[in-house]
C-alpha cells in the first residue's frame, strides 16, 4: 500500500486516477504512481530540522548576552544552580534576591564604565588646559541607553534560560523563547536610534 502520510491535492490524485483508467492500469500501478508523486512533494514536518527552533533561540540568547556583562551572566547561572540545589520551594524563595542582585550589578557596571570615561575626559581636558589649548565642552552624559538595554536584554535572557522558578510551564517557556527572539531583533534596531556613541570624536591635538 502507498504511504498514507503523504499529502497531495485531490486534483492531483484524481488526475493520476484518470490516467490509470485511460491506460487500463491496475490499482497497484495507480498506488505506485501516487506514492511516487507523494515522494516528490515537500514534507515540511518531516524534512524540517527539529533543532532549528532551538538554534534560533540559542542565537537570540547569544545576541542578548552582548548587552550585559558576561560576569553577570555567569553569576546568575551559578546562583541559579546553587538555589535549585536547595529544592523547588527554597530555590523559589531565594531567586528574587538573585534577580535583584543581577540588576544591581548591571547598574554598577554601567556607572563604573561611565566614571572611567568621565575621568579620561577630565584628564584630557586638564591636559589641553595645561597646554594652553581651548577647553572643549563635556559630551558625556549618564549612559541611560546602555543601562536600559542591559536590563531589557537581561530580562529576556533570564526568562528564556531554563531553571528559574517563574517560567516553568510549557506555554510560558514557549512565550519566553519567542520574546527572547523578538527582543534580540528589536534591541539592535533601537540601538541605531538611541544608542550612538556617547563620546564625540576627539579633536586633533595639533590644531592651533
From the structure above, extract its key features.
disordered N terminus, 8 helices, mainly alpha, 208 residues
How many individual β-strands? 0
User: What series of H and E elements makes up the topology?
Assistant: HHHHHHHH
Rg over CA atoms? 30 Å
The end-to-end span amounts to 90 Å
Largest sheet: none
| Helical content class | 55-70%
**Share of residues in strands:** under 5%
- Nearest-integer average pLDDT: 74
Q: How many distinct helices?
A: 8
Shape annotation:
elongated
Structural class: mainly alpha
| Unreliable residue runs | 1-9, 41-48, 197-208
EC number: 2.3.2.8
Enzyme class: transferase
Protein name: Arginyl-tRNA-protein transferase
Keywords: Acyltransferase, Membrane, Transferase, Transmembrane, Transmembrane helix
Q: Topology of this protein?
A:
Layout: H1 10-23, H2 27-40, H3 44-47, H4 52-64, H5 70-84, H6 88-130, H7 144-160, H8 170-194
Describe the structure.
The protein is an all-alpha fold and 208 residues long. The chain is 70% helix and 0% strand. Mean pLDDT is 74; it is low at 1-9, 41-48 and 197-208. This is Arginyl-tRNA-protein transferase. It comes from Maritimibacter alkaliphilus HTCC2654.
Amino acid at each position: 500500500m502507498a504511504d498514507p502520510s503523504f499529502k497531495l491535492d485531490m486534483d492531483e490524485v484524481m488526475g493520476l486516477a484518470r490516467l490509470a483508467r485511460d491506460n487500463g492500469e491496475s490499482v497497484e500501478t495507480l498506488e505506485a504512481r501516487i506514492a511516487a508523486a507523494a515522494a516528490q512533494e515537500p514534507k515540511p514536518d518531516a524534512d524540517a530540522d527539529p533543532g532549528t527552533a532551538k538554534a534560533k533561540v540559542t542565537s537570540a540568547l547569544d545576541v542578548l548576552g552582548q548587552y550585559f556583562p558576561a560576569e553577570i551572566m555567569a553569576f546568575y547561572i551559578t546562583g541559579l544552580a546553587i538555589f535549585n540545589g536547595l529544592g523547588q520551594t527554597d530555590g523559589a524563595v531565594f531567586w528574587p534576591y538573585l534577580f535583584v542582585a543581577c540588576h544591581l550589578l548591571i547598574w554598577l557596571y554601567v556607572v563604573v564604565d561611565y566614571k572611567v570615561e568621565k575621568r579620561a575626559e577630565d584628564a584630557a581636558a586638564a591636559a589641553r588646559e595645561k597646554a594652553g589649548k581651548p577647553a572643549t565642552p563635556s559630551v558625556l552624559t549618564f549612559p541611560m541607553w546602555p543601562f536600559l538595554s542591559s536590563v531589557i536584554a537581561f530580562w529576556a535572557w533570564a526568562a528564556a534560560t531554563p531553571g528559574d522558578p517563574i517560567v516553568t510551564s510549557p506555554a510560558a517557556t514557549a512565550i519566553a523563547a519567542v520574546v527572547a527572539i523578538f527582543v534580540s531583533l528589536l534591541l539592535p534596531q533601537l540601538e541605531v536610534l538611541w544608542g550612538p556613541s556617547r563620546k564625540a570624536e576627539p579633536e586633533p591635538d595639533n590644531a592651533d
